[in-house]
């Protein structure tokens, strides 16, 4: 027999003979789409165990790319044994993001630090209560276009999640100054705060944000029509770390007023970032 000649047993080996945890789960399956993973799961019982074992090992789960296709049954299969998630993106998942399922998922994954429920309209503040009491190390939370969000939900996050750095509550129009005040006095580490289209926000909120969040880098106040130029003075005085300010459609704030901000701040007011070369600075005319 020729040396190193493959035996008949060698020809029977398949990719399933590769180490699952160190090779297949880490180096192969991450390149498959969720649709491909479910197709693999249907091949045979071994592939079914392989796929489900991979789901249980996930640290990051993003189903936003298949949000219009995935069913509640499929979602339950994915999350059934997950206990290691640190990141969860359910953007636009209206079919599978039901309240009971998410409460179950959150309770089993206390290490979650980044969560997006953007445009998940079938939820309630109850989910945030579970999130705040379970995931105490939460740093990123996206609730954009979650019209169900009320002050009570935001306050529960504020009281428990003191490590929060990123918060997006764009178009959550039920939020008022009071919950923003409680938020910033409990979450001093905020670097990004977005509440465009939150119509109840007034200059008082901006004053509280400016004074309580010294590390703020990005602030989005687009469409907050109750804001006046008084809020710009608070930003100018206290937001020394600010790099980006989005202020489109703030009808009571003029471009001339925004020119008083430090030149290091990128100010987005119209279709383009405001150029301080086009209009003389206020201080230049005094």
From TrEMBL:
| InterPro entries (alphabetical) | FBXL15_LRR, Leu-rich_rpt_Cys-con_subtyp, LRR_dom_sf
Cellular component terms per the entry's GO annotation: cytoplasm; SCF ubiquitin ligase complex
User: Any one Gene Ontology biological process term?
Assistant: SCF-dependent proteasomal ubiquitin-dependent protein catabolic process
Give the subcellular location. Cytoplasm
Sorted alphabetically, which keywords does the UniProt record give? Cytoplasm, Repeat, Ubl conjugation pathway
Pathway field of the UniProt record reads: Protein modification; protein ubiquitination
Does the entry feature the keyword Transferase, yes or no?
no
Residue ranges of domain F-box/LRR-repeat protein 15-like leucin rich repeat in the record? 112-258
Query: What PANTHER family is this protein classified in?
Result: F-BOX_LRR-REPEAT PROTEIN 15, PARTNER OF PAIRED, ISOFORM B-RELATED
Protein name from the UniProt record: F-box/LRR-repeat protein 15
Where is the organism placed in the taxonomic lineage, from the top?
A: Eukaryota, Metazoa, Spiralia, Lophotrochozoa, Mollusca
- Recorded name of the encoding gene: LOC115209075
